Amino acid sequence: MVSTRIFGKTQDGREVLAFTFTDGPYKATVLNYGGILQSIVVPDRNGAPVDVLLGYNDVAGYENNGGYLGALIGRFGNRIGEGKLTIDGKTYQLYCNDRGNHLHGGKSGFNKKIWNADVVGDELRLSILSPDGEENYPGNLNVRVTYIFEGGELKILYHAVSDRKTAVNLTNHAYFNLNGEGDGSILDNELWLDCDAITPTNPTMIPVGGFRPVAGTPFDFNTPKAIGRDIEADDVDLKQGNGYDHCHVLKNRCGQYVKYAVAKSNKTGITMTCYTDMPAVQFYAGNGLHQQGKSIYYGKRAGFCLETQAIPNNVNVPEYAERGSSILEAGQEYNFTAAYKFSV
Q: Given the DSSP bridges, would you call strands 271-276 and 305-309 parallel, antiparallel or unpaired?
């Protein structure tokens, strides 16, 4: 069941709606502002409700604070080096908003838009038209993102089509803490990631080529371990990211739907099993969090993200594009799925 209520208004007076899925003891709330996942409430091992998603209690929180908490990200999730996008010999200079690079859609990404919303049965469908030239991307891009929450599983289905050749890399920037959003630390959350390599970065966090095997490094989560176990290790990539903020290249082929991660809290007993048909995931340990959240102040590493996507900067690195290109031909359909299943 999906219910609708007014969540609040933006600073310029636009109404923001909250859509809440209720499925037995499970609840999830999505906003039409930024396609934001505002809360996910699941039962712990004792049946008590736990909100495992970081966020804010009002629209102002999402408008005024950084961190992209729970937001739908586009046109291009993650980073493009120096904001350079070249298509068929023409270079488009994108807005640079992160250390001289383009991040998460630029100056005003999809996370700041109010989306059209339709409830169809037990599905929430958000849609938007990103016009040709927005953030200097080519093509009128029609985007539809469908949210489904049943049986303790949240599914996000991404769809897009453009009338011109362009670049698209959609994701969601949810911050999880399986101890509960008010716990304050994810360092004891355990994580398994089905990944053999990360993409090393330059000092501005741009992957510029090559793959680094994770075996024998702090990035190896092939055997489950606490997120905090190796996060302060003496490692050049860790130090550049101030902790985990790296693209983990998954073992599946682009388009092959697989289980790629399992996270667990020993405090609550809550397990989150993650699925995708995207070729990579950005694992971010919330190293830069510093904002007042729903119930507490969110400091460093109060939440972690698993952002399914194509490899960052693949538009400028052919060997990354081979794993899944973000270049979308005119009329070609972009279709990907991410899912998070909760259990105890």
A: unpaired
Alpha-carbon torsion 106, 107, 112, 114, what sign?
Answer: negative
Residues 184-228: tens digit of each pLDDT: 999 999 999 999 999 999 999 999 999 999 999 999 999 999 999
What are the backbone dihedrals phi and psi of residue 43, each rounded to the nearest 5 degrees, phi first? Answer: -80, 145
DSSP character at residue 293: -
Domains in the chain with CATH codes: 2-343 (2.70.98.10)
Q: Which member of 134, 135, 181, 307 is catalytic?
A: 307
Q: Containing H/E element for 305?
A: strand 305-309
Q: Are the C-beta atoms of residues 124 and 30 closer than 8 Å to each other?
A: yes
Long-range contacts of 127-130 (CB under 8 A, 24+ apart): 130/74, 130/75
81 close to 71: Cβ distance less than 8 angstroms: no
Say which DSSP state 311 is in.
Answer: P
Q: How far apart are CA 280 and CA 177, in angstroms?
A: 21
Q: Is 173 labeled as catalytic in the residue annotation?
A: yes
Helix, strand or coil, per DSSP, at residue 269:
coil
pLDDT at 186: 98
Can 307 be counted among the known catalytic residues? yes
Tally the C-alpha atoms within 13 A of residue 135's C-alpha that lie toward its C-beta.
28
CA distances (Å), origin 43, targets 52, 57, 171, 268, 344 = 10, 21, 26, 9, 8
Q: Residue written as tokens 């023409």?
A: 90
- Helical (H) or strand (E) element with 240: helix 236-241
Question: Is the pLDDT confidence value at 141 over 90?
Answer: yes
- CB distance 164 to 138 below 8 Å: yes
- Six-digit token string for 93: 């200079």
Closest C-alpha to 32, from 56, 14, 10, 16: 16
Catalytic choice (173, 181, 246, 248): 173
